[in-house]
Amino acid sequence: MADDMDERFGWAWDLISADPARRDAAHLRLDGLRMARAAAVTRQEYEEASRRLLPDGLWTGSWPGLARVPRAVRYRLLYLDWEMRFPHEWAWHAKSWRTKTSLLRTFHQHVDELSGWIRTVLTDLVLLAVDRPHRLGDERYARLARVLADDALRDRLRELGEHADEGVRLRAGYLTWVVGTRGLPEPKPSQWREYLMRQGLTEQPAERHLPILSQVDGGRVPILVRCPRCAGQAEVACATPPGPDRAAWRVPCSHCPHTATRRPEFKQGNRWDGSAVYDPVFRLPLWLQQPCAGRRLWAYGTGHLEAIEQHLRARVRLADGGAYLPAYQVELPDWMMPLERRDELLAGIAALRATVPATA
Ligand SMILES: [Zn+2]
């Protein structure tokens, strides 16, 4: 069979575009392909639809000769690159840890057959992995680092070992150790954890973010409100960590002398009926709110707003026309769910974000 990889996956480069609108269009295309497969009646239709899906279609027709099918290799690298650059979007649209690890294992096994450009891309991926929190399957990048190691890679790792961010320094230090120590067993997930333990550290799981609303509830992220005195933007936050005493919440305004402190016994929620919304402690109107589609679009702060946007962009369309929205970080009301409302919501989010100074 002729290689039709470009015809099947040429659009997929948009998955790693810097332009959110292009990525968005690619996500919708992928969702459409998934719907087409769900609608398949015959086995042949199902297989044809699978060939066009990510990651399913990556395996078709070219296994295992890595070096002989450069086009297939490009799209396999693209899949890895996507996981690296946009892990959230990757996770909701085409997550397959098994594909990630098998791809990396195959590159590792066939490293001697790989042409120069493939080694370069893989080396870049190893370095990108240093630059972001450790993820499932990353031990395969450590294995690759050992077989790809050259002076340039060692130099880059040494530079990253001086990075301002502690996580980057640690991951670079780990890889430097893995690459430079002869006789070390092949990297496993436990090896990275042991490396941290020897430095007296344990890793906070990167995949499990606290839900944004419980962070707001605990006062760990500031809530943007309208100051009751000057109507400027002020921040509500919890000044003391939760403990035996009731936590003190404060709202100092940076534009005027207004300041208030409360140790709330209860916190008040908001009505979701389109009326104005307030912070849970001082009941000051939230800064980020505006009418939208006959309801009210609002967020406690910029992080909350961003979480809403991510989830609007990340949801997966279901075959019956409904939408599945992953809700581990934010829960969205039903009125936000229809896909045809999404552009209006995204425009509203952009308008709200524009009211917050860049430093906030
Ligand atoms: Zn004020």
SSE arrangement:
Elements: H1 5-9, H2 20-38, H3 43-51, H4 70-85, H5 87-94, H6 97-109, H7 116-130, H8 139-148, H9 151-160, H10 166-180, H11 189-198, H12 212-217, E1 223-226, E2 233-238, E3 249-252, E4 259-262, E5 288-292, E6 295-299, H13 302-314, E7 316-317, E8 323-324, H14 342-353
Antiparallel strand pairs: 1-2, 2-3, 3-4, 5-6, 7-8
The structure holds zinc ion.
Organism: Catellatospora aurea
Protein name: TniQ protein
Structural commentary:
It comes from Catellatospora aurea. It is a single chain. This protein is of the alpha+beta class. It folds into 2 domains: 5-198, no CATH class; 212-353, no CATH class. Helix content is 45%, strand content 9%. It has 14 helices and 8 strands. It has a 4-stranded antiparallel sheet, with no helix packed on it. Strands 5-6 form a two-stranded antiparallel ribbon. Strand 7 (316-317) and strand 8 form a beta hairpin. Helix 7 crosses helix 8, helix 9 packs antiparallel against helix 10 and helix 13 (302-314) runs antiparallel to helix 14 (342-353). Residues 317-328 have low confidence and may be disordered. The site of zinc ion has 9 residues, from loops.
What's the overall average pLDDT, rounded? 84
Widest sheet: strand order? 1-2-3-4
> What compounds sit in this structure?
zinc ion
What is the general shape?
globular
Strand residues, percent: 5-15%
CA-atom Rg in angstroms: 24 Å
Considering DSSP H and I runs of 4 or more, what fraction of the residues is helical?
Answer: 40-55%
| Strand tally | 8
How does the helix and strand content classify structurally?
alpha+beta
Euclidean distance between termini CA atoms:
56 Å
* Distinct helical segment count: 14
Largest sheet: 4 strands, antiparallel
Low-confidence segments, given as residue ranges, are: 317-328
Overall domain count:
2
Listing every helix as H and every strand as E from the N terminus to the C terminus, the arrangement reads: HHHHHHHHHHHHEEEEEEHEEH
Organism: Catellatospora aurea
Protein name: TniQ protein
